[in-house]
Amino acid sequence: MPAVAAPPPADAAFAVEPERPAGEPEAADAPAAGPDAPDPPDPRRPATVAGPRRVLDARGRLVELDVAPSDRRAAIACHLLPLTALVLFPIGLAAALVPWLIGRDRSSFVDDHGRAALDASMSYGLWLLVTGLTVVGIVLWPVLIVVGVVSAIRAAIDASNGRYVRYPLALSILT
Fold first, then answer.
1. DSSP one-letter string for 54-110
2. 1-30, pLDDT tens digit by residue?
3. What is the share, in percent, of the chain residues with pLDDT greater than 70?
4. Conformational region of residue 134, where left means phi above 0, alpha means psi within -120 to 50, and beta covers everything else
5. Phi-psi region of 68 (alpha: psi -120 to 50; beta: other; left: phi over 0)
């Protein structure tokens, strides 16, 4: 006959805790009650997040929540410095490279904005070159320039708010 273990005596030095259902917190794990108690964690978001926190805004655009102010400034510079190309063409394109080359390894936010700004600069330059070959295209130059300037300003505003952007009429050269 198999041996059956006898229950421990009542005066044993240890106590057996009853099993609790899975997912039920222990008394020590239970959140504190009262007005000073922290908010309970959001069940839709994991407790540990690796990398930047990104969400979609009301218009469906990707927004990065934890962007350092220096990264925001570098992204804004990536969008606004190409506007100097309107006055000083080669310097404007080189100036657009500086914040991107400095910040691309440090922040994916700066890297993405720098690539988008350089794609737009090269694309608008290409569009101006191609349209300049025809008489009708020369008439479109002011439209292309206005679209480029307005797009760069809007992209800089979006960068300051942590949003990712894509320019209209821009070819995906670096992105």
1. EEE-TTS-EEES---HHHHHHHHHHHHGGGGGGTSHHHHHHHHHHHHHHHTTT-HHH
2. 556 666 555 555 545 555 555 555 555 555
3. 69
4. beta
5. beta
Handedness of CA 168, 173, 174, 175 (dihedral sign): positive
- Look up residue 145 and give its DSSP letter: H
Cα 76 to chain centroid distance, Å, stands at 14
Six-digit token pair at 91?
Answer: 């310097």
State the pTM of this model: 0.65
The closest alpha carbon to 95, from 116, 126, 118, belongs to 118
Task: Determine which helix (DSSP H) or strand (DSSP E) holds 143, and give its type and residue range.
Answer: helix 135-160
Amino acid type, 121 = S
